[in-house]
Design goal:
Elements (H helix, E strand, L loop, with lengths): L8 E5 L4 H12 L3 E6 L2 H11 L5 E5 L5 H15 L4 E4 L14 H29 L2 E6 L13 H21 L4 E8 L5 H4 L3 H9 L9 H12 L10 E4 L19
Parallel strand pairs: 1-2, 1-4, 2-3, 4-5, 5-6, 6-7
Helix pairs in contact: 1-8, 3-4, 4-5
The chain binds NADP nicotinamide-adenine-dinucleotide phosphate.
NADP nicotinamide-adenine-dinucleotide phosphate binds next to helix 1 and helix 6.
């Protein structure tokens, strides 16, 4: 396998579980040195133990909604490695709430984690990337919001579309400094968060995916590795959908092969 990220240093927020952990594993296999960040130290320790056979990985305990935590995450990475080549802004939450029942607090909370958390993480990395003469930022958005909709997840969809609005202007603003900003848009990927939605949900989703399976976190990790790598050096402000074809069918019937007369 070509190692796309040899010699690069990456921070992955939400790296202790699910898609973030899959990105961490893919990045390590592609030769990157990785720092993962999330809130629960026990989970971070477990993931570092599990993945350390693939390469150099360490952790920082940080809540992406808190400026001081993000500053600590970035300064710890600089102290350990001297540079930040890649930031994967991956943290995201997806609680279900119908609009009629949704409280202002619920709306604010999801925006704080998914949108403000992304903004704070990116903001703190920029000075270091500028000083180095470049860098790459990969945001984990979703198909939900930017492309598709789902009853019960309107607030979530709004945050995931907001991330792309931010990305497009950020890509222009940061291009003069050699900093690229792109996004991965996962479909249904087997993560701790997705599994918590229950068996019935997983079965329905599986049936709506032309390739016939749910995604693996490393499927997203490999797309992120490409966007973060020098192979994508002329790509900025763009998205890669990683969904097994889920956004393609017009209806469930569209996936049934027509019978020949
Ligand atoms: P997950 O399994 O629930 O994992 C979430 C990760 O984020 C954990 O490491 C969690 O650790 C961390 N985290 C949550 N809140 C945090 C906070 N405030 N500060 C720092 N870390 C925090 O989620 P996932 O399914 O992998 O989703 C990851 C991303 O992919 C999200 O942006 C989500 O919107 C997107 N996505 C997922 C799917 C899917 O099918 N799974 C589909 C489309 C998009 P702690 O709780 O210890 O902090």
């Amino acid at each position: 396998m070509t190692r796309l990220l040899e010699g690069k240093f990456a921070i992955i927020t939400g790296g202790s579980k699910g898609i973030g952990k899959g990105i961490a594993e893919a990045f390590l296999k592609h030769g990157a040195t990785v720092v993962i960040a999330s809130r629960k130290e026990q989970d971070l320790q477990k993931t570092v133990e599990e993945l350390s056979s693939f390469g150099q990985i360490s952790y920082v305990v940080a809540d992406v909604s808190k400026t001081e935590d993000i500053q600590r995450m970035v300064s710890a990475t600089i102290e350990r490695h001297g540079r930040i080549d890649v930031l994967c802004s991956n943290v995201g939450i997806y609680p279900m709430s119908l609009i009629e029942d949704m409280t202002e607090e619920e709306w604010d909370y999801i925006n704080t984690i998914n949108v403000k958390g992304m903004f704070l993480s990116i903001k703190e990395c920029i000075p270091h990337m500028k000083k180095q003469g470049g860098g790459s930022i990969v945001i984990t958005s979703s198909i939900t919001g930017p492309i598709t909709g789902f009853a019960g997840w309107s607030h979530y969809g709004a945050t995931k579309a907001a991330q792309l609005g931010f990305m497009r202007s950020a890509a222009i603003e940061l291009a003069p400094y050699g900093i690229r900003v792109n996004a991965v848009l996962p479909g249904n990927i087997v993560s701790e968060g997705l599994l918590s939605l229950g068996e019935e949900y997983l079965d329905i989703m599986k049936r709506s995916i032309p390739l016939g399976t749910l995604g693996d976190p490393q499927d997203v990790g490999n797309a992120a590795a490409f966007l973060a790598s020098d192979l994508a050096k002329f790509i900025t402000g763009q998205t890669i959908v990683v969904d097994g074809g889920q956004i393609l069918p017009e209806s469930t019937e569209a996936m049934e092969l027509p019978t020949k007369e």
